[in-house]
Write a structure and sequence with these properties.
Blueprint: E1 3-8, H1 17-30, E2 34-39, H2 45-49, H3 56-67, E3 70-78, E4 81-82, H4 84-90, E5 103-109, H5 117-128, E6 138-141, E7 145-147, E8 153-155, H6 157-174
Parallel strand pairs: 1-2, 1-3, 3-5, 5-6
Antiparallel strand pairs: 3-4, 7-8
Helix pairs in contact: 1-6
């Protein structure tokens, strides 16, 4: 069974980004993958900021990432880039921490104006971490994700099509 870690850099677990995360999780599990969500916001802030590599939470998170067959990197867009919270965590990942792992970016922002954030802000960092097979990813606009009662999310038809295509590509790489 392939292991996929979803690395969420959202500072809020109420973000519409979780509509994308939940959908991708469901699709991957249906295909037979073991999916683990790693919310960076749940890690001790002081350990992240001070790069405390002896922190049990940090070492466990990095071990989870190291053991993954694939990684989904998810973030809201702030000031034309991924979240600072995500950057703080990525700074702790070893130099070759993403080598031989397919990486699928999932991003959400307020407008289409930030569509290229994956290519211009995220991909260079992933590449520096050894990521060589970085999928095109999915960029969504907030308006494409509706919060529903009970914590569920409704996704626009266009977004579902794009997520299905990207998750299918990841499944093929994992041979699911």
């Amino acid at each position: 069974m392939s292991k996929v870690v979803i690395l969420s850099g959202s500072p809020s677990t109420q973000s519409r980004l979780y509509g994308l995360i939940h959908y991708a999780t469901e699709q991957l599990r249906e295909a037979g993958a073991e999916v683990t969500l790693l919310n960076v916001v749940d890690l001790p802030a002081e350990d992240l900021i001070k790069a405390n590599f002896s922190s049990p939470d940090v070492t466990a998170s990095l071990a989870l990432l190291a053991d993954a067959d694939a990684v989904i990197v998810a973030s809201p867009v702030y000031k034309a880039a991924y979240s600072g919270l995500l950057k703080i965590f990525l700074d702790l990942v070893p130099q070759e921490g993403l080598r031989e792992k397919p990486v699928l970016p999932l991003f959400i922002g307020g407008t289409l104006a930030h569509l290229l954030v994956i290519d211009y802000a995220l991909k260079p960092v992933l590449n520096a971490l050894g990521g060589r097979h970085i999928l095109g990813g999915v960029y969504a606009v907030d308006q494409w994700v509706e919060r529903l009662p009970g914590g569920a999310y409704g996704l626009s038809e266009e977004l579902v099509v794009r997520l299905d295509r990207s998750v299918k590509e990841l499944n093929e790489l994992l041979k699911l």
